[in-house]
Each structure stands twice: as C-alpha cells, then as structure tokens.
Amino acid sequence: MMVRWSPMIEVARLFNEVDRLLDEVTGTMMNRNGLTSITTLRPAVDLYDNGDALVLRAMVPGAQPGSLDVQIEQNTVRIKGRFGAEVDEDEAKGWTWYRREIGSGEFSHSMTLPVPVDAERAEAAYNDGILTLTMPKAEHARARKIEVRTPKALASSLN
C-alpha cells in the first residue's frame, strides 16, 4: 500500500525529536510509568557586590533549609540540596495519576567568586524559595580611599 507523503508528519516528528533533546539537556526524563521526574537541576542565581560583601541569591523553591549544603572554599562557593515533593512510590502505586508534573531531585551549583571573601563571616538565609548568601569581602579585597598628598605635606611628614 502506498502512503501519501505529508509535510506535517515530518514537522511533528521534528518537534518530538527536539522535545526529547531538550529533556535530555535539562535533566528531565520519563520514568517507567511514563511520568516525568526531574533528576538534576541547576538553580538560577544572582551575584552582586554591595560594596562590603558579595551577595548570592539562588532560586531553590521546594527545598527545605535543612537539606541545603552551602560551602565556601578558597574562591569558590557551592550550593547543594534537594527539592520538590517526594512521593513514596509504593504508596503511589494505588493512586490514579491524571497529571504528575511536580518533580523532585537534587540540585547543585558551583561558581568562582570574582573577589576573595571572608568565609568565616558569611551568612545564609532562606525565605520564600530564595537562598540568600551574604559573603563579606576579605579585608584586602575591599576598596580603600588613599589620600593623595602634595610634595610639601609629604616632606613635612618625613621630618
């Protein structure tokens, strides 16, 4: 039997292939039940300098503060943790799922800081799904005002 060629079938096939590739890149996979589960995530972060400290804000909705692991080593900060609504799979076997989009898993993010920080004085807070890490700059990395003197003032200070 001869099948008539349709460009729309080719477009649909292309869309399916792009969806599959994007799922692989973002860490989203279909489990054996055909339900989506997220395995890894890299949270979105903001990093800014307020003059005295570097402030890192990471978006980690669904994470519990106790599951967060924040480390600063040399000039690198690392954030790890768990997110999402975990469901006991044995208990869920008896349920009828109509839609299951809330995934769970682990996240991790490491970044090199642009200036040295004082890790001993760093503080972390978690509010409304946002982790805020305030890292005071190391003393030698802070901007200092240096007075410019005239040669006359410089000579009198040497005497």
Describe the structure.
With 159 residues, the protein is α+β, with helices and mostly antiparallel strands. It is built from 3 helices and 10 strands, in the order αβββββββαβββα. A hairpin with a 2-residue loop joins β6 and β7. The mean pLDDT is 81.
How is the topology of this model organized?
Layout: H1 7-26, E1 28-30, E2 36-38, E3 40-41, E4 45-49, E5 53-59, E6 69-73, E7 76-84, H2 89-92, E8 104-112, E9 123-127, E10 130-136, H3 151-158
Parallel strand pairs: 3-8
Antiparallel strand pairs: 1-2, 4-5, 5-10, 6-7, 7-8, 9-10
Short description:
This protein is of the alpha+beta class and 159 residues long. It is built from 3 helices and 10 strands, in the order αβββββββαβββα. The strands form 3 sheets. The protein has a 4-stranded mixed sheet with strand order 3-8-7-6, with no helix packed on it. Strands 4-5-10-9 form a 4-stranded antiparallel sheet, with no helix packed on it. A two-stranded antiparallel sheet has the order 1-2.
Helix content: 10-25%
Shape descriptor: elongated
User: Main beta sheet: strand number and arrangement?
Assistant: 4 strands, mixed
Gyration radius (Cα, Å) is: 26 Å
Distance between the termini: 107 Å
Count of discrete alpha- or pi-helical segments spanning 4 or more residues: 3
Give the overall average pLDDT.
81
Helix/strand-derived category reads: alpha+beta
Number of strands: 10
Order of helices and strands: HEEEEEEEHEEEH
Low-confidence residue ranges: none
Measured by DSSP, the beta-strand proportion falls in: 25-35%
- Please state how the strands of the largest beta sheet are arranged side by side: 3-8-7-6
